[in-house]
Design goal:
With 172 residues, this protein is of the alpha/beta class. The protein has a single domain, classed as 3-Layer(aba) Sandwich (Rossmann fold). The chain is built from 6 helices and 5 strands, in the order E-H-E-H-E-H-E-H-E-H-H. A 5-stranded parallel sheet has the order 3-2-1-4-5, sandwiched between helices. Helix 1 links the parallel strand 1 and strand 2. Pathway: Cofactor biosynthesis; coenzyme A biosynthesis; CoA from (R)-pantothenate: step 4/5. Homohexamer. GO terms for molecular function: ATP binding; pantetheine-phosphate adenylyltransferase activity.
Length: 172
């Protein structure tokens, strides 16, 4: 594998994209020739944003970085099929804590059995992001906490709009 041409996928539901996600994506862009941020549908999770909103928001945050080797695409279906269709040789995942390990190991084994030619690499977060998850960000935000250290201002604005929309629907 010629490293100058390695394409990596950084997948996630990004509901919303956090500074922890951005950190992993930026670090991957320093190593791989091209990084595709794959916004995936995840029917197992209750989403704050719908799929199109998550894609648009992730794209806005990534575009604001102005890193030409990073693109954002929608993932519909199996991640390994998406990776193959984009010529990706690597899937990059973040691994925050021991609690993430079991799930990630199961997914890695399944992905490896479906596409043994695709490598799976885990990045450990910087300590300041080790506790950070989209779920925690949403919970803090909905309960009136300050999330400005954890997400882009772009995300905060969209979350405010989304929350206002939800409250308006409830009062009608």
């Amino acid at each position: 594998m010629d490293k100058c041409c390695v394409v990596a996928i950084v997948p996630g539901s990004f509901d919303p994209i956090t500074n922890g996600h951005v950190d992993i994506i930026k670090r991957a862009s320093k190593i791989f020739h091209k990084v595709i941020v794959g916004v995936a549908k995840n029917t197992a999770k209750k989403s704050f944003f719908d799929f199109e909103e998550r894609f648009d928001l992730t794209k806005q945050v990534m575009d604001a970085l102005s890193i030409p080797s990073i693109s954002v695409e929608k993932v519909d279906g199996l991640l390994v099929n998406f990776a193959k269709s984009r010529g990706a040789q690597v899937i990059v995942r973040g691994l925050r804590a021991v609690s993430d390990f079991e799930y990630e190991m199961e997914m890695a084994f399944m992905n490896r059995s479906l596409a043994p030619e695709i490598e799976i690499i885990y990045f450990m977060p910087y300590i300041k992001y080790s506790f950070l998850s989209s779920t925690i960000v949403k919970d803090v935000f909905v309960n009136g906490g300050d999330i400005s250290a954890f997400v882009s201002p772009i995300v905060i604005e969209h979350m405010k709009k989304n929350l206002r929309g939800s409250n308006e629907e409830k009062t009608c």
